[in-house]
Design goal:
single chain; 746 residues; alpha+beta; Dihydrodipicolinate Reductase, domain 2; four-stranded mixed beta sheet; 24 helices
């Protein structure tokens, strides 16, 4: 903040902020402020009731009884603390607006369409009225491994319920005194239009709606914050797994070499304690990186502004309703009406048979009488044909209580045909029950889309619920803020995204193609958008050789916000296959990307998606993994083995012997399942021997794999097993899964 801005902010705080607490402020000159404080305020500050505050040292010396006020002074800190502890609520009046003469009925006819109704003017004349707008300021806190805060504001028109341009409103002349009149109730509230405005009830509904609108506004921000928290969690968990895997292997080796049972039992207890500590640390990491979002109301302002208002009657042969309309002098536009179901401003209104004005998405046609109703009129759907029905044509089944139309009466217990595809209702914000004049009915599915109707509104993105807190200022003591809170974070999926990078012809893409050095490419990286440009960048870097990719992977932790694992996959796919084992063996074993890269290169994705098929180099890489004990556990052996199975390497049986020496775990079960379906009989025999060695230890995946092996190879498997045991009986006990799998016995 510059010196001039700091000076202006301080003066504005004294002249505009303190009067909201009851003080009187005067500005004899631009750098001198005189304050007359209420008695309780002066007592709280420990000063006299009159203060003369100089904002510059020169003015303080030249003015009698002036106190120099600057940032960091004790008096200013006390003034700020007093202002923050007060009720952050104000009431303002817009003055000085030149209200243009406007033919409101003609403007309404031009801007808003009524497909199933017509307009009739009322006897009420156009008049100038004050309408209330309420502005809310919310503090949003994002808390995970880091804490971030932001201030957001939303303003609503209490009469129409539509959103107001708050910056434009605050640029108008605001006074603290006025005499507004609001002769009609807010049109968007559940109250009838004949009752006077209930300010407390309107503020309650406006506060709830403002919180919901803010959640819509924050959807993209929350998504970005959630993905960032998920990446941090993945890194933290990977570091914990590497640490505790090394510790567990060390203790296990010491336990196996223990010379007496007492020493072995003590090491086994330590091993159990290590595993318990691992789970505790993982849970702590997950809790620390869980994204928690809180929404707190910190201030509110009630702003009255003049509006040119009138009302018209909207009617059809079923209903007639009064529609108030207004011209907004701040926006210099007609204040569009809002749907009485979803609360969204719309330029197309349908009049339902019960007298509700709704948008096209919330208008429903009864399939029996063709009357047009809305979602708040008790419309149900037939459980057989899924068509909407009004309350007069709903047939309730005496047996099950389900609702059908007259045509499908008594058919709700028969097989239901495929439902007629209907337009989905607009997504609603799920929230805890909030006080309202009457409970809103449940949303109903929409009727099938017709060509004559406008296209439905695009679905809003999903977003989390935000925990909100009530701050009780003045007349808003009963305003609730009870929107629930839930965890909102995404698990990243490791996958390759094919992108059309070759078709890029924009200047950035041309610059990437012309870059011939790592330095030039890294200078371009911050300017590139996500998607094909990043893939093009990765391929260009890979063309510089394996050393460039090696340096890229070494710096991946630093570049994690710019690059993704899919980028690494694409980069690796451009390398010569002989460079892959050497490259991966040189990676730091503590890197979060090591195992994922192994699985990419070892054929976890089908051929043809950019992963090169490998030959004898796969066996060489398996030898590297098997012998490279530091930081690598049995899971990496399985990753290499799975890759060999996928690529049908001739020495896969030899590799299997190494794996079968270990203890079973869930990753090993997955490897065995793949081997069972590999089509190699010798591999299946070895697998069956291993499974039958300790049948009590295996869970359902292994039983399915074993059952499939014996179903596929039949008597050949029994003949390959030793004859000193009743294998048939043991197998039936081990895997009694399905008579289909054991059909070979018959």
């Amino acid at each position: 903040m510059t010196e001039d801005n700091a000076f202006s902010e301080l003066r504005r705080f004294l002249v505009d902020g303190l009067p909201t607490l009851g003080a009187l402020a005067d500005l004899p000159r631009h750098d001198l402020v005189e304050l007359l404080l209420p008695e309780d305020m002066a007592t709280s500050l420990g000063t006299s009731g009159f203060l003369r505050l100089a904002l510059t040292p020169e003015t303080a010396k030249a003015t009698a009884e002036a106190t120099y006020l600057a940032y960091g002074s004790d008096l200013l800190d006390r003034l700020i603390a007093l202002a923050r502890s007060g009720e952050h609520v104000g009431r303002w009046y817009v003055t000085g607006l030149a209200q243009p003469v406007k033919n409101l009925r003609q403007e309404l006819t031009r801007r808003v369409k009524f497909p199933n109704a017509w307009l009739n003017p009322s006897i009420q004349q156009d008049e100038l009225q004050y309408h209330y707008a309420v502005a809310f300021w919310f503090r949003v806190v994002y808390l995970s491994h880091e804490k971030r805060e932001a201030l957001h504001s939303i303003a609503l028109d209490l009469h129409t319920g539509r959103r107001v341009n708050l910056p434009a409103l605050l640029l108008e002349t605001l006074d603290q005194e006025g005499n507004p009149t609001t002769a009609v109730a807010p049109f968007w509230t559940p109250a009838t239009a004949s009752t006077p405005l209930d300010l407390a009830a309107a503020l309650t509904l406006a506060q709830e709606r403002a919180a919901i609108l803010l959640q819509h506004d924050l959807a993209d921000t929350l998504s970005t914050a959630s993905q960032r928290a998920a990446r941090r969690l993945e890194e933290a968990q990977a570091r914990l797994h590497v640490f505790y895997d090394d510790l567990s292997k060390t203790l296990e080796r010491r336990r196996q070499r223990a010379e007496d049972e007492e020493r072995g039992a003590a090491l086994a207890a330590k091993l159990e304690a290590v595993q318990a500590e691992r789970q505790k640390k993982l849970a702590e990491a997950e809790e620390q990186h869980r994204l928690r979002v809180t929404l707190r109301l910190v201030a509110a302002a009630l702003i009255a502004r003049p509006m040119m208002t009138t009302q018209v009657y909207v009617e059809n042969r079923f209903a007639k309703v009064a529609l108030p309309i207004a011209w907004d002098p701040v926006a210099k536009d007609l204040s569009l009406p809002v749907c009485q179901v979803c609360g969204q401003a719309t330029d197309r209104l349908h009049l339902c048979a019960s007298g509700h004005l709704v948008c096209p998405d919330d208008a429903l046609h009864c399939s029996a009488c063709t009357r047009e109703l809305c979602r708040s009129c008790g419309v149900a759907t037939c459980v057989v044909c899924h068509q909407p029905l009004c309350s007069r044509h709903q047939m309730v089944c005496p047996t099950c209580g389900q609702i059908t139309c007259q045509e499908h009466q008594e058919q709700c217990h028969k097989p239901v045909p495929a439902p007629v595809e209907a337009a989905k209702p607009k997504p609603k914000v799920e929230e805890e029950k909030l006080p309202a004049p009457k409970p809103a009915p449940k949303p109903l599915p929409k009727p099938p889309a017709k060509p004559s109707k406008p296209a439905p509104k695009p679905a809003a993105p999903s977003y989390p619920h935000l925990e909100t807190f009530q701050q009780t200022p003045g007349y808003r003591k009963s305003l609730p803020m009870e929107i629930s809170n839930q965890i909102y974070w995404f698990q990243q999926e490791l996958q390759a995204h094919p992108q059309d990078y070759a078709s890029l012809q924009d200047p950035l893409a041309q610059s990437v193609r012309q870059a011939t050095s790592e330095e030039a490419l890294y200078r371009l990286l911050p300017r590139l958008p996500d998607g094909p440009h990043i893939d093009l960048w990765a391929r260009q870097l890979a063309s510089l050789g394996s050393e460039a990719i090696r340096r890229l992977l070494r710096d991946m932790d630093r570049l994690e916000d710019t690059l993704s694992l899919s980028t690494i996959c694409i980069s690796l796919s451009t390398l010569d296959k002989k460079a892959l084992p050497v490259l991966l063996a040189a990676l730091p074993t503590t890197s979060i990307f090591t195992r994922s890269l192994m699985e990419i290169v070892l054929g976890q994705w089908p051929a043809g998606q950019g992963v090169p098929q490998v030959g004898d180099e796969m066996w060489a890489f398996y030898e590297i993994v098997k012998n490279y004990r530091k930081g690598l556990n049995a899971d990496f052996h399985l990753s290499a083995l799975i890759g060999m199975v996928n690529w049908q390497h001739p020495r896969v049986e030899e590799a299997l012997a190494h794996v079968l020496e270990g203890k079973p775990n869930q990753d090993m079960l997955e490897a065995l399942r793949l081997m069972a379906f590999s089509g190699k009989e010798t591999l299946a025999v070895a697998l069956a021997r291993f499974l039958l060695r300790s049948p009590g230890d295996w869970e359902t995946p292994a039983r399915y794999a074993l059952a499939y092996i014996f179903y596929r190879y039949g008597q050949q498997m029994l003949s390959a097993l030793p004859a000193d045991r009743d294998w048939r009986g043991d197998l039936m006990k081990l895997a009694p899964l399905s008579t289909y799998y054991w059909g070979w016995q018959r």
